[in-house]
Amino acid sequence: MIVLAENGNIFLHSLLETENSGAGRERQNSDIMENKESKQIEMSNPIAFITENLCLYLLEKPSLFPGVNIPKKATNFIRTHKEKLKVQGEFSFPCRSELWNNCCKETGHKLRSIAFDMFKDEGEDVSINAQERFLKTAAAWTFPVERIKIDNERCFLYLQRQAVMTTLLQQVLKNDNTNTFGKLEKDPKQRVYFNRVNQAGEEMEELSLYRVKLLEDILGRVFEYSKWTMITEEEVMEAKQGKGQGVLQVQVISAAGKPSINAVVIPSSMLSSATIRCGIVIDPITGKITKLKTKEYLSCRSNDMCLMAMHKYGVRVKDDTKFSTLMSRLGAAAVTVDLMEVRFSSPVQIIRSGKGSTKGAAFILYNSARLESLLRRFDEKVENGDYEGLPPLDSIDFTLLDEEEEWQLVFCYIFAFPNLIESCLEQIQKGICAVHTIVRFLGDFAALFSVYYRRIRILTQETRQHLMPYVYARIYLVKAVREILNKALALLDIEPVHFM
């Protein structure tokens, strides 16, 4: 369980002791132990850290079973915002006490009186004091809360932007073993066996089965990134004999049919299984499963990428192997985006004549190239003596990053990236995955960076000493954006583009 940062814990539990006497002291000891066990979790998934801290503050543990987890329904009450952050803050949750108490009936949690006081009519001394007590606690969190607003039966939370930005960017850009950002290790007792589809070469020429293979490969990388305990077929022998921990067997099949799979027999007592049924690829003209072969579609999309690069992005066509290889890469990336941008179980249409989303692979990779080009130009200015070298990360004043797009890049995408990966696997035991959200994340991320790139002049045309702190802070921001963008691309097996 994720709990309060130590300073916040001390303050919160001093309140709880006053309120609940000896029972509060027992819970304090339990929660401090939990805090020590999960010291790194706030960087593994910042959104989960905030959500769990809020629930811990708002909800009192049941006296009979204090170790029971906070119900999922309660954590779902905490809404993370993606737009209008200035107006509605970064997080919000309902203020109606009956909603909280009803969702916690099964576990026995209930709303604390200090939380209930926060929700009383605005202007009452009790409510104002309760809100101040909460802010004093939340100000000690790793990602501190600056202010709250209660309006229309919702409580809106506003983070201390500069503190969050400084902490987050320094962590994301660390190049040592202490960088735990996004690396949330799963329960090592839960082992996963990925039962991959065994397809013949001619079967892979069917686009619907190629989509299955893409989904398999992406899930494999998400499992690996999330540090799920993956086991091989040889290790399954132990489970077949009824030894060791249980195994979750995951397989992906096509809605077009049931291809042969490598069946592994495991005693039911040791096995839980998840079958992910992947939707078919259809032709938009006929509305039926497409007859276009995989190689033909890859070639078609490579040609589309070449034409788009020429007309939209001004790329000059070169008659050489390097350029042809790049266009093939772009074509493969386009096919991946085409087939994965909708929910895994839904049918997906092929793209004909280059018609498709403006936030497709070409747009994403064009902005990837923009990032690289910008950082190259900065390095060239340093080499030419126009700029001094980039100062150490811990000396940068990130309070200078006060543009709204800068905060959106940090909060909506860098801050949110680990939670995106978590959500992909959240319902995997039910045969449900959310790989399509990675594609959407990339498209929206690239769109926001494109707006920021066009509006803000990151590099100055001439050296102006008073502007250099802004340049350095923004270069580090761009480096962090590149880090997260490339991590998301890697999950789809798409290489970033350095030139376009």
TrEMBL record:
Protein name stated in the entry: Uncharacterized protein LOC105225526
Coiled coil, from the record: none
Gene3D superfamilies in the record: Isoleucyl-tRNA Synthetase, Domain 1
Source taxon at top rank: Eukaryota
The species this protein was found in: Bactrocera dorsalis (Oriental fruit fly)
InterPro entries (alphabetical): DALR_anticod-bd (IPR008909), DALRD3 (IPR037380), tRNAsynth_Ia_anticodon-bd (IPR009080)
Domain DALR anticodon binding as annotated: residue spans: 364-500
A Gene Ontology BP annotation from the UniProt entry: tRNA C3-cytosine methylation
Gene for this chain: LOC105225526
An MF annotation (GO) of this entry: ATP binding
Pfam families reported for this sequence: DALR_1
